[in-house]
Amino acid sequence: MNIKLHTPKSLKTGSGMSSWRQFLLSLLATTVSIALTFGTAAVIDYNKKQSEKREIVMMVMYDMYNSLQEVKKADSMMYQAMQIQKQIAQDTTQFQELRFKLAHLIPTVGFTETTEHIFSSSIETINTVGNVLFTENVAKFYQSRHYYKTTICDSIWSDVVKNSSLSSIKSSLEFNFIDYALMCNAYLSDMQHLFIQCQEMMKVTNEEIQTYSQKRQQMEADMKEADTESNKKLHKLMQLQNEISKAKGEKH
Question: pLDDT tens digit string along 133-174?
């Protein structure tokens, strides 16, 4: 910005009080103009940063919320597996029927790590959020999520596959679901506490998370619809090309 402040000619020639008043009014107008210009720019920049901060926070909170739903589902599956184990123990003649139900209750999780990578790998993203405790809690949450997958879900699957743990009545009854269930409960409790703390410190309500979740789900549905249409078009193109090739072959 190139602002020039001119001293009135009348002031140079010493024309009196009115000239001074005119000069002071000119000076005041210039000062106000500068203040408004820079003040408005500062407000716009501040609002932009606040909007970016909120979007990052909501993205992370949504990811944490979804992760908790996955862990809760896995926790429920382990409880159901122990109930089946009890049924087999009470009546071993049901083993062949119940073993397949038991196999389908081995817990799995479908964590999406995209948000974690975006949040953890960019110092600019962390600086935009500007809350050290929130950043630390999110890092702890993701660490717990990783440990949960490796020490519980992956370990159970490995045990089942390597040791054929559900292949017989004896091995099915001896499979130690309780240890995994207790670990799952501990991880779930820790992750829930971290999630609630993040909610409170960033003032994010359950209603906001639900609204954001609906928005993201709609976006994902729109993307799937677009992919479906793209695949249909590709199929039609390939079908048309096959017809062209066939027609060319018949002529020769």
Answer: 888 899 999 999 999 999 999 998 888 877 777 888 898 888
| Spatial distance between the Cα atoms of 122 and 117, rounded to a whole number of angstroms | 8
Which whole-number Å values give the CA distances from 52 to 126, 142, 227, in the listed order? 11, 22, 29
DSSP-derived secondary structure letter, 227: H
Burial of 24 (0-12, 13-18, 19+ CB in 10 A): exposed
pLDDT tens digits, residue range 106-140?
Answer: 888 888 888 888 887 777 777 777 788 888 899 99
Q: Is residue 110 helix, strand or coil? A: coil
**Token pair for 19:** 């000239």
CB–CB of 56/162 below 8 Å? no
Measure the CA–CA gap between 135 and 11, rounded to whole angstroms. Answer: 60
Environment class of residue 8 by beta-carbon count within 10 Å: exposed (0-12), middle (13-18) or buried (19+)?
middle
